[in-house]
């Protein structure tokens, strides 16, 4: 019997028993795995360090299960922005996606010429069928460890690992982990930051239709803030030594440098080639920082509904392992006939879809987008030529423009250049299309977001327009929030910031979603060329911008 979902528009095969966290779905692609949990686990605790004895108990239970269970356990090390990360799991699905997603140690060294440390910087243990534990996720910053029980959903595993890596990079190296996407045009990077469902992926792939563009990242980027030295070097600070004593490190270096710009203290950091560099503070142009983005994933883990707007992605997805691809009903096929027709027309007669009869092809297309959280692994070099893709994870892309994307049909403003007060307030509030709040649109952050949210609510109550000034004055801000906002302050100093509202469907002259998307891409490219502080266009006058 199948489990019905969403008004019987699609279904999933039932679990073989009550304890399996994963099982095979109806075949599609290289493999189709159904996971019992298809989102965040009911129990999710990022405050393990505040609970004495909890981490030790969790780890002991995990390794006792590995030792006593009569099943294979897999272990594999990858490198994520220079850090070695080890996964230990009894899930064939998770280890398969883990190996697909990231650069292995040998691969990293071959591509970048850099050798990671011998021991893991971050550990993730993910075990299913553990009877003594609930379906749950835990994180310890003190131990840089993520522990999952009884879930095989890769999305949460990936996001928590990225959050754990991000905390270590921020505190120790001043490297900013951002839930965003980057594409470059004529060597200038556009960074998109957005809640789910507002057009982040659509905007990234859409700009690739323009000449002079290169694809950088789809979901997560590492940003290094750097200064120019008087002799022209580009330099990202990591530690500051004054009189032989360390006075600042990681994200704390930026404000220290601004306060001590004439100091003779020694700054230890890295150049764009990742080699260690030293300089004295007085050598740095502290007033004009630059932001450089680095990609994180080897192969992108993304929603397969991308094929609705970019049918060419289907050619790689059909060769990928899929996660939670459902079976579709006749009702779904009828309701979505126009979209299925349009996508199928792009695939018909082309390998490997040429081997499918018409019904199989249409069903396959429908299964890609029926359930909004069906996932696939996408090798972007199969969609765009390799020379138009950043394939070296240590090749930087300088960010020139930051787009905070939203979709608010109650507003007519399409694009607006932001001052720091509006920019920081948008990030602090982080309101999603569903009305929920997500700090910096990043549910991946490995922090106690409840306490952060409660603190932010107290300053938001004094008015959104005053949030940034109130934040700066406050003495009791959570350090994890200070860490995040200090780096976003540096991003604002390094690149032009814009509010982008993806609502061009409101323009009565726009006849299709495709036309709305294309015009939005043109607006983005025009903003990239803008040098003015005042730049604001709405539904009534955005065509004037496009005509320039």
Short description:
The chain has about 550 residues and is of the alpha+beta class. The chain contains 16 helices and 29 strands.
Characterize the structure shown.
Among the domains are: 43-173, Phosphoenolpyruvate Carboxykinase, domain 1, CATH 3.40.449.10; 230-284, no CATH class; 397-547, no CATH class. The relative contact order is 0.13. It is built from 16 helices and 29 strands. Strands 12, 13, 14, 15, 16, 17, 18, 19, 20, 21, 26, 27, 28 and 29 form a 14-stranded mixed β-sheet that branches. The protein has a 7-stranded mixed β-sheet with strand order 5-10-11-9-7-6-8, with helices on both faces. Strands 3-4-23-25-22 form a 5-stranded mixed β-sheet, with helices on one face. Strand 19 (266-270) and strand 20 form a beta hairpin.
Shape type = globular
Class based on secondary structure composition and strand pairing: alpha+beta
Radius of gyration: 24 Å
The share of residues in helices is 25-40%
What are the low-pLDDT stretches, counting only 5+ consecutive residues below 50?
none
- Per DSSP, the total helix count is 16
Distance between the termini: 59 Å
The overall average pLDDT, rounded, is 94
β-sheet strand percentage: 25-35%
The tally of strands reads: 29
Largest sheet: 14 strands, mixed
Topology summary:
Blueprint: E1 2-5, E2 10-13, E3 22-24, E4 31-35, E5 43-45, H1 54-68, E6 74-80, E7 83-89, H2 92-101, E8 103-104, H3 105-112, E9 122-127, E10 136-140, E11 145-149, H4 154-173, E12 176-178, E13 180-185, E14 188-193, H5 200-207, E15 213-217, E16 221-228, E17 234-242, E18 245-249, H6 253-259, E19 266-270, E20 276-280, E21 290-295, E22 300-303, H7 314-317, E23 321-323, E24 327-328, H8 330-335, H9 337-347, H10 358-369, E25 375-378, E26 397-406, E27 413-417, H11 420-429, H12 449-460, H13 467-473, H14 479-494, E28 496-501, H15 513-529, E29 536-538, H16 542-547
Parallel strand pairs: 4-23, 5-10, 7-9, 9-11, 14-26, 26-28
Antiparallel strand pairs: 1-2, 2-24, 3-4, 6-7, 6-8, 10-11, 12-16, 13-14, 13-15, 16-17, 16-21, 17-18, 17-19, 19-20, 21-26, 22-25, 23-25, 27-28, 27-29
Helix pairs in contact: 5-15, 9-10, 11-14
